[in-house]
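Why do we care about 3D structure at all? Because function follows from shape, and shape follows, mostly, from sequence. That is the central idea of this module. The next example makes it concrete: a single protein chain, its amino acid sequence, and then its structure expressed as tokens.
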Amino acid sequence: LIDEFCPHRGVSLWFGRNEECGLRCPYHGWKFDVTGQCTEIPSDPDGSRFAQKVKVQSYPLVERGGVLWTYMGPPDKQPPLPEWEFANVPAAQTYTSKRFQECNWLQAMEGGIDSSHVSFLHRGDLNSDPLFRGARGNQYNLNDTRPVFEVVESEGGLHIGARRNAEPGFYYWRITQWVMPSFTMIAPRGNHSVHGHFWIPIDDENCWAWSFDYHPIRALTDAERAAMIDGKGIHAKVHPVTYRPIANKDNDYLMNRVAQKAGTTYSGIEGIALQDASLQESMGPIVDRSKETLVSTDSGIIMARQRLLRAIKAFNDTGETPPGVDTAHQRIRSAAIVLPVDQPYKDGAREAM
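And the structure:
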């Protein structure tokens, strides 16, 4: 991964020619290798060694799970390669997409760890979306709209447990994994795939929402993969170049008031990804949190903010490595499980997580 602009006259190397062992600027032919080192300046006289003095900023780039990963910090602090399960299972078992989201990464991420909104915002999709339907847990979500949250710290972030009533004497638990700073994993439904997001900042007011689906023990079916490509589940239909969703704020997210009134979609917007994005973007690019009125079901969001602030202070004060860098923090799963009412989920779901 190298800086976009040629150090000669500032031309964008997006226009570069991919030539053998390098990228050549089409303006004057300056050529750079994968480390950013200039290897050729055609206009220089024979014998000139000036090209050796020219280098653009570069960062290591690796592919895992169909995703390109980079590290942009000091070389002596480079962490090990990512060990998220979705990026390491066979290609047939995983699918990843990304979309452009027009708000700060943190308010998008906070939506990702909020389980209470599922009973409302996504209720029209639980029994119709091909990547969700048929799971017994859907009815627990629909029947009990007052989840009780129990949030506990994990080594990498938080376990966010949302408890709903199941059969008499049992609770239905959905445990979201949040690993700092921006990884969320949502509990699967039935035998459907596990899914989640990374929220990666572009700047203060925009982010990339990377969305993954994978099954830990089997290949995704052709129907599942087709549904993901079609924007079902947590994915979205996007422009093939800009990755901006086809339904966006310029066209009111293709709001359908008739479907909203009929209850086909609770918000009138089709697709779980866009239901989330539309409301998160509606808060503005950076939400004014001083105007919030938080309640008990927001405990995961409250604790995540506290955990982030503590990690920032520890890093600034002592250089302490933040949670999430250690690959042991990445070897986790979310879980959906029915447990007796007297069994704490951190014990009953330990193996599943």
